[in-house]
Amino acid sequence: MNAFNQSEMGALLLDHEIEPRDMMPNELLDVIMARQFGTYYQPIVDVQSTEMLGYEAHARFWAWNGRPLNAGKLQMSLRKNPLLLFHLELELKKLQITEFPGEGWLMLDLDMDSFFAGGDTPENPFLVLFKQHAWSEREIVINIVQNHNAHDACRSQHMMDLLQQSGTSVALEDTGVCWGMFSLSAFLDAAIVKFSSRALRDLDAKASQAVVDWLVSAARKIGVQTVMTDVDTCAALDWARRMGVDCVQGQLFSRQMLQAS
C-alpha cells in the first residue's frame, strides 16, 4: 500500500487515533524517517463573494499500520528532541509548498523553536526555503506556533522581522483569546489577523461581539486582512459576514485534499 493510500485510510479512522505517548521512541522515529506524514489543505474563503483566496496547510501523520496519529500531540512529544522536530518541520514545509494545489495564500504553521533552531540569520533554512517562493503566484503566510510563555513575545517579534525581511508575510494567530499572541507591534506588523469563531463563542455574547468589532475596525484602519477560523456552520458564516470579517475558514468549506509524500 503506498503512502497516499495510508493517509487516506488514516483519514477514515480518525476516531481511532494512536496516542504518541503510547508509542516506543523507535516507533516515533520511524514515523519521521519513513516519511509517514502528509498534508491536507483547508480553504480560505472571501466572506462576501465566497471566492477561494487560498489554503492553510495542515500536517497528518500515521503509524506503520495506517492508523492516524494526533499531529499536535506528536509534535509536542518531539519537543524533547529539538533537532528531530526541526528536521520534521523543515520537511513538512517543503512538502506543503511542493504539493500546494493552487494559487493565492498558502498559510503554514511554523513552530517558533524549530525556526530558531536554524539560526537567526538570513541563512536560516526556513528563510531560504520561503525566499525561493517569495513574490510568486502563491503568497506564503506563516502562522507562528508558540509555547506561550513570557519570553515568546520578544522571540515572535524577532521571528516576524526575519520572515518579513525575506519577503514572507506573517499571520497573527488566535488574536483575542487567552493563549493567543498579541502586542501592538505584532498587530501593526502582521499581514493577516486571525481569530477563532469557536473560542469567541465561549465568551459572553456581548463580549465576543465587542472583540470582533474592535479587531475588524482596527485591522481595516491599518490595512490588515481579518480571517475568522473554525467557521463550521452557516450561522457562523452569517455572523462573520455581519461583523465585516474579510475571510473565513473551517469545516463548512473543507473539501480536504489529501496529499502525501
What can you tell me about this protein's structure?
- The chain has 261 residues and is an alpha/beta fold.
- It has a single domain, classed as EAL domain (TIM Barrel), CATH 3.20.20.450.
- 43% of the residues lie in helices and 23% in strands.
- The chain has eleven helices and ten strands.
- It has an eight-stranded mixed beta barrel with strand order 1-2-4-5-6-7-8-9, surrounded by four helices.
- Strand 2 and strand 3 form a beta hairpin.
- 39% of the residues are buried.
Distance between the termini: 13 Å
Strand content: 15-25%
Note the run of SSEs as H and E. Answer: HHEEEHHEHHEHEHEHHEHEE
* Alpha-beta classification: alpha/beta
The fold-level CATH name is TIM Barrel
CATH homology superfamily: EAL domain
CATH architecture: Alpha-Beta Barrel
Gyration radius from CA atoms, angstroms: 18 Å
Q: Please state how the strands of the largest beta sheet are arranged side by side.
A: 1-2-4-5-6-7-8-9
What is the share of helical residues? 40-55%
Low-pLDDT windows of residues: 1-13, 255-261
Determine and state the CATH class: Alpha Beta
What count of domains describes the coordinates?
A: 1
Let me know the average pLDDT. 82
Instruction: Assign an overall shape.
Output: globular
Query: Biggest sheet, open or closed, and with what strands and sense?
Result: 8 strands, mixed, barrel
Assembly state? single chain
What is the number of helical segments per DSSP (H or I, 4+ residues)? 11
Instruction: Please report the total strand number as a whole number.
Output: 10
